[in-house]
Design a protein that fits this description.
The complex is a heterodimer. By secondary structure, chain A is mostly helical. Chain A has 3 helices and no strands. In chain A, helix 1 packs antiparallel against helix 2 and helix 2 packs antiparallel against helix 3. Classes of the chains: A mainly alpha, B mainly alpha.
Chain lengths: 102, 195
């Protein structure tokens, strides 16, 4: 395998994951929390694909594709919730959200 | 013989250059997503992030996943994000708004702890199991191979995926319809009182 080894990809993936996790924890806008969640999922995908390459096994790529589908489903439901919140005139701030009832 | 070695060295250097550029773009755009005040810019930075990830997938010979990443993620999902952000207007507070609170500091410390922990774990394995990569054929990561795996070994995952997509689509429609009904009844309320 030419170029950097698997550990370089894994370290990249960890840095990306931590960026996303810190973003989820410190940001208050639910839109940016969703974007940071996408970063975390993609960091996981990078690790999966790096390991798929290391073992020469396609199952890791299948898993990455499944994660992609789950991320798309999560984006649909999350964005639907945010739009519903804004239509109900609820403030878009995850720190003040304490009620699940409409 | 010397020519072949030179060619492989040149290919190696080229791969390294592509990797470094993609990695820098990946980390910068990831930070940008978290730090931008305007959600619209954050979403655009995420598009760059997903694009540089697709380059890394290509370097890892995952051609089909790279194509799906660009089409599904950078294409479809991000367009949906941008539509919603445009609909709601670009409102968000800066990440540093409100000064350093205990929760923010704790989040950064916890993130740093995870980073150090996993990097140490990778460093311990780097000389051993992680130092060798399997030999792969040309078919690895091709659409044909992915399709064969999806329809043989991972058929259940494939079917569950379709159910997840169906449930998400139905959920999205229900959330949208409920929100519109509430909005309508809220708009009708004053008229009913007057009548």
């Amino acid at each position: 395998m030419s170029g950097p080894g698997i550990s370089a990809y894994l370290i990249l993936s960890v840095i990306l994951f931590v960026t996303g996790a810190v973003g989820v924890l410190i940001r208050r806008s639910p839109l940016i929390v969703l974007l940071a969640l996408e970063i975390m999922l993609n960091a996981g995908n990078l690790a999966l694909i790096a390991f798929a390459r290391q073992h020469g096994d396609g199952a890791g790529q299948i898993f990455a594709l499944a994660v992609m589908v789950v991320a798309a489903a999560e984006a649909v439901v999350g964005l639907g919730l945010i739009v519903a919140m804004s239509r109900k005139k609820i403030e878009l701030d995850v720190d003040t959200l304490a009620n699940l009832r409409g | 013989m010397t020519g072949a070695v030179l060619a492989s060295t040149a290919g190696d250097v080229f791969t390294w250059i592509v990797w470094v550029v993609a990695a820098l773009a990946l980390l910068t755009s990831g930070l940008a997503v978290v730090l931008f005040t305007n959600p619209f810019y954050s979403a655009l930075a995420l598009v760059l992030n997903l694009g540089s990830l697709a380059v890394l997938y290509l370097l890892l010979s995952a051609e089909f996943v790279a194509a799906a990443q660009v089409l599904v993620y950078a294409g479809a999902v991000m367009v949906m994000f941008l539509f919603v952000i445009a609909y709601l207007g670009g409102r968000a507070d800066a990440p540093w708004a409100g000064g350093p609170s205990v929760t923010k500091l704790a989040a950064i410390v916890a993130g740093g702890a995870i980073l150090v922990e996993v990097v140490v774990a990778i460093g311990l394995a780097a000389g051993g199991p992680l130092s060798t990569a399997a030999q792969i054929g040309n078919a690895f990561g091709s659409p044909k191979e992915i399709g064969r795996l999806f329809l043989s070994d991972h058929l259940l995952a494939f079917e569950v995926t379709s159910i997840i997509l169906l449930v998400a689509a139905v959920g999205g429609v229900i959330l949208g319809a409920a929100a519109r009904r509430d909005e309508k009844s809220a708009a009708d309320q004053p008229k009913a009182v007057e009548g």
